[in-house]
Amino acid sequence: MNAVVATSVFAVFMVAAVVLGLLALRGRGKGGGLAEWSVGGRSLGPVFIWVLMAGEGYTSFSYLGAAGWGYNYGAPVLYVVAYMSCGYAIGYVVGP
Q: Coiled-coil region(s) at which residues (predicted)?
């Protein structure tokens, strides 16, 4: 594939993305703004928030820290899975 084809494919996708963005901007109604988008209008339930927090913690830890930590210290690192589960359950009960 030569440079002309690659550049034209890239240009087509960029134009399509801009057109879709402008169509979405034009078609939006009166929303709640940034607060509605960022915190869900404060209408998410506590169980859903707990699941989101636990999922965020597990994915951040597993992608960023668990591999290196497990490589350095071995299998005893697996206690963290149980530790985090207990921590999130306790945080759900006693947290705000």
A: none
